[in-house]
Amino acid sequence: ATGPIELTINGEKFRHTGDPEMPLLWYLRDVLRLTGTKYGCGVGQCGACTVHLDGKATRACLIPMAALANQSITTIEGIAGPDDLHAVQQAWIEHDVPQCGYCQAGQIMAAVDLLKRKAQPSDADIASLTNLCRCGTYPRIRKAVKRAAE
Ligand code: FES
């Protein structure tokens, strides 16, 4: 039997005492009510549920809580302070990126991770992000990522 799972989310400590197989996405949305992280496909294909696990973009629908003991998660709610926006969020607003908006939190989390790995990402680097957008906002995503890199 496993005991409570302790983890850090957006800098706060939490203890999960429920089902250890619960995917992180459900814990974020249904238990903590952090609903900025979206449910798209539930099978790791779309990227709507992208969060950072120890700083790296990760699909929250695929990770069971049992795998997260003592790990640190950041969600879209945690990438900037309450009174400021992340440079990527600012660039998203400047380039009016979202259409329906549903995938955009995941897009932003993927972009923040990319910019940490590559300060000056190429078009190919940006195209390598596999977050899906049914509205086809990819050209604006590309512009906004480049703007955030400036
Ligand atoms: Fe997780 Fe689609 S909901 S990748």
Describe the fold and architecture.
Keywords: 2Fe-2S, Iron, Iron-sulfur, Metal-binding, Oxidoreductase. It comes from Tahibacter soli. The protein is of the alpha+beta class. It has helices at about 25-30, 85-95, 105-115, 125, 140-150; strands spanning about 5-10, 10-15, 50-55, 55-60, 70-75. It folds into two domains: about 5-80, Beta-grasp domain (Ubiquitin-like (UB roll)), CATH 3.10.20; about 85-150, DNA polymerase, domain 1 (Orthogonal Bundle), CATH 1.10.150. Helix content is about 30%, strand content about 15%. A five-stranded mixed β-sheet has the order 2-1-5-3-4, covered by helices on one side. α2 (about 85-95) crosses α5 (about 140-150). The longest helix is centred in the last third of the chain and has 14 residues, at about 105-115. The chain is globular and about 45 Å long. The protein starts with a strand and ends with a helix. The mean pLDDT is about 95. It binds FE2/S2 (inorganic) cluster (FES).
Write the layout of secondary structure elements.
Elements: E1 5-9, E2 12-16, H1 24-31, E3 50-53, E4 56-59, E5 72-74, H2 87-94, H3 104-117, H4 123-127, H5 138-149
Parallel strand pairs: 1-5
Antiparallel strand pairs: 1-2, 3-4, 3-5
The structure holds FE2/S2 (inorganic) cluster.
Protein name: (2Fe-2S)-binding protein
Keywords: 2Fe-2S, Iron, Iron-sulfur, Metal-binding, Oxidoreductase
InterPro entries: 2Fe-2S-bd, 2Fe-2S-bd_dom_sf, 2Fe-2S_ferredoxin-like_sf, 2Fe-2S_ferredoxin-type, 2Fe2S_fd_BS, Beta-grasp_dom_sf, Diverse_Oxidoreductases
